[in-house]
Amino acid sequence: LICRLETVRELSPDQWIDLFGQWQAERDPSILALICERARLTKEKIFGNKVYIRGLIEFTNYCRNDCYYCGLRKSNRETDRYRLDESTILSCCEKGYELGFRTFVLQGGEDPFFTADRLRELIRQIRQRYPDCAITLAVGEHDRSAYQSWFDAGADRYLLRHETANENHYRRLHPEPLSGQNRRECLFHLKEIGYQTGCGIMVGSPGQTAECLADDMVFMKTLNPHMVGIGPFIPQHATPFAGESPGTLEDTLFLLALVRLMLPAVLLPATTALGTIHPEGRELGILGGANVVMPNLSPLNVRKKYLLYDNKICTGDEAAEALSSLKKKMSAIGCEIVMGRGDSPLVI
Ligand code: 5AD
Known about the structure:
Keywords: 4Fe-4S, Iron, Iron-sulfur, Metal-binding, S-adenosyl-L-methionine. By secondary structure, the chain is of the alpha/beta class.
């Protein structure tokens, strides 16, 4: 396994399967420590000790999809649905700007209320008010023409996790009409249009095997994304996966480190899910190769409604208001939060 770590940029699919198989057989803590250390050094060569921050605005929890793992799935009657209006979204941006954020991430379910035109109008407004900020969208699968119109209106980046690059596994996680092929096609469209593009997976989702993870690595190498979002799967009590086991801290750190080693310049967040399964999850992620955190800028009264999974943290240091406490935690591990857009080095 150690030998393979030298060559993660050139591994064949079979070698990846082997690597994950060995990891899953032993889960040797000394191997994990070693790979995290190398991932951190790789990150530091490009980014130094800098950590980028993004202000996350969860603007709608309506969703037309029914993904088996997600608390926002349309069949979940327990979810207290909300959507923010334009002026509320703009005031989240205003608050974020004052706090020092220069990237806003507009994240939401695939909510039909937000038509391509409505969203374009919103993006235009934000772009006009905040010319020095990056606008990141995370609103799922749409036509190429919608993606293009949002890009033209001023959006810069797009997050769309591929969830799994393995077709059978994709089907295990998502009912039709969703398909892995369409998801991957969306990602290539986004990249072609010119977005800084992010894909990603959950670690430890039901049915995820060494083969699935190997497919993910191979896919990510091909897509060569600017960003990769990786967090543990965490069951949500009102979904079909309520009784499944969560992904572990160790497996998630292992994946984060491998992604850093394979794609050295990638923007890699230490996710809220990682912070949810372990009190020091985000710090450990940063020490193992991650270089982005995404504090929550959503209005306080809706934060508890955006429940992708159970026990999601939302009022501690991951909240945008607690930036000074986040700064302290980062400086305690030798890292410095930087204000500014924090664009991908691949485009500048
Ligand atoms: N556990 C962890 N992550 C989840 N997501 C959705 N549901 C869960 C869950 N139960 C992730 C998906 C999605 C992103 C917005 O949140 O990967 O792409």
